Amino acid sequence: MDACIKELYRIGIVPVVAIEDANDALPLAEALKKGGVSAIEITFRTEAAAEALRTLTREMPDMTVGAGTVVTKTQADAAIAAGAKFIVSPGFQPALVAYVREKGVAMCPGTATPGEMEQAMSLGLDAVKFFPAEQNGGPAMLKALSAPYRNLRFMPTGGVTLENLQRYFALKQVFACGGTWLAKKEDIRAHAFETVTARTRAAVRTMLNFKIKHVGINSKDDAEAKQNASLIASIFDLDCIETPVSFFSGTAVEVMKYQGKGSLGHVAIGTDNVDRAEYYLAKRGVRFDESTRKVDSLGRSTFLYLEGEIGGFAFHLVEN
């Protein structure tokens, strides 16, 4: 996967914006970043697109800035000259895909059918845009398409909203979601950037979907763990289930068979994507114990401990 696509995977949400006045680009990007998202796709639907893109790549080098609605080589050249880190098109043009890739820029063409997806794969792409997502069957269609194309990653765009965001992110092959709802044209015109920040913050919270999964209690050995887990289960009429390393009293309490991480135990925090959670928490200054990371067959992290303790408890992320 291209390095820029990997970065978009970690960010997860790609605001798709149409900027009519290049002077609005910087405050808009700052509003998005304040809400937690450091990516933006500027559509080439307005005369101000190239200048807006140029402004952001110059003033906010840590922002992952791309160009959208690119349908010609001339537009691609203008976007690349302005500093676009990725190019997105609404449809699939093999010649345009090849042209952008020859320039060394990440390309994410729009696809809607298996035929277009296979053509993209034949050109060496492993990530495509699924557009328009809702009109083409939404998460159900994308789930069906994911089965035969297990090595392909998707960015659904078109009709994605806060209300259906989790349904798209429930599909593991979705590397990011593009959306226009975060920064609508009328918001940008009215300079309603606080509204943009609030929508962005809500989208990040929805995407990460943090939940307390269970609390872990340390024990000195198997016998003590079984005794304590059985007692908890009997008091609250829960099932007591043994695992290789612990006993679970129901699903909310795990009693370890040994002195695990944390002086007193641990707290498991569920999230819909551990990699994204790590990315966003790291921006808040959180550090992680790399030795504890577990990954799945797709290379996605599924388990990771934070460094240190809070109130005698260690904390780890686990996939919901």
Automatic annotation (TrEMBL):
CDD domains referenced in this protein's UniProt entry, alphabetically: KDPG_aldolase
EC code(s) of this entry: 4.1.2.14
Pfam family, one: Aldolase
InterPro entries xrefs: Aldlse_KDPG_KHG (IPR000887), Aldolase_TIM (IPR013785), KDPG/KHG_AS_1 (IPR031337), KDPG/KHG_AS_2 (IPR031338), VOC_core (IPR037523)
Keyword Lyase: yes
Domain of life: Bacteria
Keywords on record: Carbohydrate metabolism, Lyase, Schiff base
The reaction(s) this protein catalyses: 2-dehydro-3-deoxy-6-phospho-D-gluconate = D-glyceraldehyde 3-phosphate + pyruvate
Molecular function as annotated in GO: 2-dehydro-3-deoxy-phosphogluconate aldolase activity
Subunit structure: Homotrimer.
Stated family: Belongs to the KHG/KDPG aldolase family.
Protein name (database record): 2-dehydro-3-deoxy-phosphogluconate aldolase
Organism: Stomatobaculum longum
